[in-house]
Amino acid sequence: MKLVIAIPALDEEESIASIIGRTLQARAVIVQRTAVTDVEVAVVSDGSTDRTVERARQFGAAITLIVFEQNRGYGAALRSGFAAATRDLVFYTDGDAQYDPSEMTLLWNALTSDIDLVNGYKISRSDPVHRILIGRIYHHTVKLLFGLKIRDVDCDFRLLRRSIFDRVSLETSSGVICLEMMKKIQDAGFKVAEVPVHHYHRVYGKSQFFNFRRLFQTAIDVAALWVALVVRREHTRRLAPRMTADALPPPPRERG
């Protein structure tokens, strides 16, 4: 069995080396202790303007580097990572190093033959009070609006079978892609398991999400997604033959 680990990053020059290094250590443990025989680590730089790409390149052939010169949005970066995946399994987490890659083994242990996706959920959110409050409001609001059954829609620590994307096609380019993904996966009847994972304080940089402009745009994106997925429900009447990057051009890939 083969696995690809996708790490989307935007201006994470201070944390990207840490998350890549820890991910490579976790890769060695996974190959040693599980049935996974091959693991690719794919870092997706979504228009970073700092030294994120430069620092990622220092890992050479140990990773696959996908570089977008212009920022396309978190959703677009994640979709590109999924579209490029050819392995049996896909795991992803963010480049801000707020999750511990070694806990991937917890997700693997929950991936039984009847489970299609293992969703991490934060044991305790390690963020400033205002972010915790906004996060709780967002979670409970979208859970109610979209009829979601998972405990944490906004935990970017997930292990998925790649075959999911033979039926589920993602379209969102913004940060609400996680909401779109989990709603479509649930409606398609895939089986989801949930595992508690630790969430750590952001040591470097600042969130790209928590500002008034982005919060306002997120509200608009959520409303549009609600109309598409709850009111119109067109996604339940069509099945994508294969996950593609939609309108995105093929991502440039670097090795070594």
Brief description of this entry?
The protein is α/β, with parallel strands linked by helices and 256 residues long. It has helices spanning 16-33, 52-57, 74-83, 104-110, 129-146, 177-187, 212-232, and strands at 2-9, 38-46, 64-68, 89-93, 117-122, 157-161, 192-197, 253-255.
Key words describing this protein structure:
about 260 residues; alpha/beta; Spore Coat Polysaccharide Biosynthesis Protein SpsA, Chain A; 8-stranded mixed sheet; about 35% helix
Q: Quickly give the CATH architecture.
A: Alpha-Beta Complex
Mean pLDDT over the full residue set: 88
**What does the overall shape look like?**
globular
| CATH homology-level superfamily | Spore Coat Polysaccharide Biosynthesis Protein SpsA, Chain A
| Biggest sheet details | 8 strands, mixed
Secondary structure: number of strands = 8
Element layout with pairings:
Blueprint: E1 2-9, H1 16-33, E2 38-46, H2 52-57, E3 64-68, H3 74-83, E4 89-93, H4 104-110, E5 117-122, H5 129-146, E6 157-161, H6 177-187, E7 192-197, H7 212-232, E8 253-255
Parallel strand pairs: 1-2, 1-4, 2-3, 5-7
Antiparallel strand pairs: 3-8, 4-6, 5-6
